[in-house]
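for the writeup, i need someone to sanity check this before i put it in the appendix. the sequnce is what the collaborator sent (i think, or maybe the updated version? ugh). structure was predicted straight from it, no edits. if anything looks off just tell me and ill rerun, i have time this weekend
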Amino acid sequence: YDVVTTVEPKRQALKLAGEQLEAANSKLAEMRALVAELESKLAELVAEYDKAIAEKEAVVAEAEKCAMRLSLAQRLVNALGSENERWEASINRFGDQLSVLVGEVLLASAFVSYAGPFTKVYREDLIGNDFLNFIKENNIPVGENPEPLVVLTNEAEIAKWNNQKLPSDQVSIENGTILSYSERYPLMIDPQLQGISWIREREKENNLQVTRLGNKNMIRVFEQAIEAGYSVLLENLDESVDAVLSPVISRATIRRGKSRYIKVGDKELNLAPTFKLFMHTKLSNPHYPPEIQAEATLINFTVTEAGLEDQILSIVVKKERPDLAKQKEALIQQQNEFKIRLKELEDGLLYKLATADKDKILEDVELIENLEDSKKISVEIEEKVEIAKETSAKINETSEAYRPVAARGSLIFFLMTSLHKIHSFYMYSLESFVTVVNRAIDLISKDKKAVKPADEEAEEGEEGENKEDSKAEGEGEGEAEGENAEANESKYDDIEELSPRSLNKRVIELTDSITYQAYNFTRRGLFEKHKLIVATMLCLRIMLSRGELDPEEVEHFIAGKQEFSPMSDNLKSFLPEQNWAAIKALEVLPPFTGIGSNMESDALQWKKWYSEEKAEAADLPRQFKDIDAFRKLMLLRAMRPDRLTTALSHFVKVNLGDEFIEQEPFNMAHTFSETNPDTPIFFVLFPGVDPTPDVERIGREKNITIANGRFVNISMGQGQEEIAEKTLETAAKDGGWVMLQ
C-alpha cells in the first residue's frame, strides 16, 4: 500500500513530464527548422545585398576610374594641345623630306667629305653648282633649296658649339659641322687660332692632351691617349707629318674580337672608342701630300671678313659700351642654353610618349605629371626666349651704330693678310691685330666714354632733366633689387650719353683711329719700296667699301691691262706703242669710251698734256678735262707711268690724310709703349743701323741696365743657344730684358 500510494503518483508525474518533454522537443524541432529556414533566407538576402553592394562599389570605382581617366586625358590634351599644330607641320615636313632624303644625304655627305679646305665662295660654288648639277642630272630626288647643315645638325647643337667659343658666323658653323660628323680625323687650317680655341674648350672634359711634332714625349702622349680614350691635339704642323703617326691618321686598325688595335711604332695599342685626334696648322695655304688629304679631313678655319667684322664689333662695343656688351654676352649664353634645354625637353617628351603603354597611358599619372612639368618649363623658356629676343634686338640696334668701325677693322686686317703676296716677310696674326684695335680705341677713349644714343631733343635743356629722372629711377630700382643691382649700376655710372649726332662723330673718330693705328703698325714693318703700294691698296679698298669707286675700274687700274692695235701716224710721233695698247684697253670702260679716236682727232692737245713735266697736275684735253681724280690716275698709268708715284702719293693724301704718306722718324719710346711681356720687338736691320743705344736708353729710364743685371745683351753665334735659353728663362721668371743679336 505504501508503495502504491507513494510510487504511483510519481509514475504519473514522470509520464506527464515525459509527455511534456516530448511536446517541448517537438516544438523545439519545429522552431529549429523554422530558424534554419529563416537563416537560409537571411543568407540569401545577405548574399544578394553583398552582391548589390559589390556591384555598386564596382560601378562607383569604374565611375571614379573613368573620371580620373577623363581628367588625365584632359590634362594630357592640355599638355600636348599646343604641340598638335607644330607636330602636324613637322610630320608633313618630314614626309616631304623623306621623299628627297637620298639627295639631301648625298649632298651632306659630299659637303663633309670635300668642302672643308675651301673658303666660303668656293664652298657655295661647289654645292650650288657642281654637286647640285650632278644630283639633278642623275635624277636624284633633292629639295628646292637643300642645306647640308639642316641634315647634319640642329640649333641646339650649334648653340652648344657657340658656348664652347666657336664663332657664330656661317663658315665657322660649317667647319664645326664638318669636324663633328667626319669619320676621318680633322686637320684644321687655322692661322688665326679660332678653331683650336674651340677644340680646347670642347674637349677639355675628355682630358685633352696637347702636343706637337718634335716633342720628345709625343709618342708617349699618343700611347696613353689611345688606350685611355683621351683626345689629342697635334698643333702647329708643317707640311709633313711624322711617318710613325701614319697608322693613327689613316685609322689603320686591326680587329680582334670586339676590340680594335692600332700600331704606333713597335707597339700594338688597344684603341679606345672615345679616342679622338685633332691636327692643326698655322699655315694659311699649306700643301700636303695626297695621302694626308685622303686620310684626314682638311678644314679651313681661316677667319672670314664677315666673321671678323662681328668679332671686332664685339671688341668695340665692350670698350665703348661695357654695360651693353655684358648684357648681350649674358643674353647669347642664355639663348644658347634655352635652345639646348628646349631640345632636351622635346626629346624627353617624345621618348616618354613613344615608350609608354598605349593601353594604360591614361592611367600613368607619373607620366602625365612629367609631361605637364616638361610642357610648363618649355612654355616658360619660350616666353623667356621671346623676351630675350626683344632685348637682344634693342642691344643689337644700339651696337650696330658701331658697325662701320668693325667693317673698317675687318677690311684692314684682310688687306694685311694679303701682303704676303708682296713679300713673304709680311705675316700678321689676328691676335696682334686685335691688340692694335684695342690700343687705337684706348687712344681716343681716355676722356670720352660712348654709350647708347639719346634723342636729339635731349641735347639741350631736356637732357639734364632726363638724366636726373633716370638717376632717380635707377635709385628706386636699386633699392628694390638690393645691393647687387646698385653695385652693377654704379659700375657704369661714369659713362656719358651721346646723341645720334655725337655718336656719329664718335664712330668717325674710332674708324679713323683704327685705320691710322693699324696702318702705322703695318708700315713700321714694311720695306720702303712697298709703303706707297700698301697705302694705295688701303685707300682703294676704303673707297670701294664706301661705293666711291667702280670695282671694275679698280681691277683694271691694278692689272694694267693692254690691248694692242694699229696706231695712227700722228700719235706715233710722241706716244709709245705700249702706252697706246694701255689706252685701247681703257675703251672697254664706259668713262673712256672712244678715247682712242678722240686722241687721234685731237692729237696736238694730247701731245701737249703728254709732254708736261708734271702731267698729274696739268689739265687734260677738253673731253676728259672733268674726269675725277681716280680716272685721271688710270690715264696716268696708261700714258705717263713715270708720274704715277707722285700722283698716287697725292691721291692718298687727299683721301686718307698726309700722315699716311709722310711717316715720322722711328721713335723707340713710342714703339716700347706698344709692347708687353708677351710681345717681343723684332728689329730688321740694314748696314750701319744699330738700335742697341736706343734700347739701353729706354732701359736706363726703367732702371733696367747691364750694371744691375736686369739687361742682358747676347751676340748669337756658335755655342750661344744654351746661354740664351737660360737667360730667357731667368728673365721670364725674375723680370728683365734680353736682347739677342
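Residues 449-490 have pLDDT under 50 and may be disordered. Residues 2-81 form the longest helix (80 residues).
thx in advance!!
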